[in-house]
Amino acid sequence: MVSSGELIRVIAERLSYYKAENIVVDPVMISTSGSRLLDDDAVGALKELLLPMAAVATPNIPEAQILWGRGIHSAEEMEQAAKEISKAYGCNVLCKGGHSLNDANDVLAETDGTVTWFAGTRVDNPNTHGTGCTLSSAIAANLAKGYDLKEAVKRAKEYITQALEAGLDLGKGSGPVSYTHLTLPTT
Fold first, then answer.
1. pLDDT exceeding 90 applies to what percent of the chain?
2. What gap in Å lies between CA 61 and CA 95, rounded to an integer?
3. 131 catalytic, yes or no?
4. Low-confidence ranges of the chain (pLDDT < 70)
5. Which residues contact 34 (CB under 8 A, 6 or more apart)?
6. Annotated catalytic, 96?
7. Is 133 a catalytic residue?
């Protein structure tokens, strides 16, 4: 999470300086409990600087609502939001399902207009803290391995599903997912 516009501007400058590729932007704008995590300046910098640099942005539904400027209440609206966010910022957009809408299905809107749905399996586990960040990181890792975007998303979804199925139970409330037992594919 990067909470200030100043920090976002520095990150964007350094990414540009190093000619970074396969940038995955997880907006991290809304906490699991629904609290807003970014001030207006940071949201503006995110939209102006980071999203246009992204190979893919991965907003969850509450974040996509902020980026789209409208509510999302159906799979159709989720798809429309992903397409319009993609068009507005010139990046591919994976709108992540969950949040009591559309189970765990995600929709990818690519800059060429292609739309792909990725079916997911909702795992009954209260320990979901970090799932969005983990999914985005797994997408980035798979892009770095040379997989195309669709395959990177597919593999990342499989990875996070395994982590949720492991059912790590630490402390109280929404704990972290488990990463310790995962079998990573070798191909």
1. 61
2. 7
3. yes
4. 31-34, 98-102, 123-130, 167-187
5. 62
6. yes
7. yes
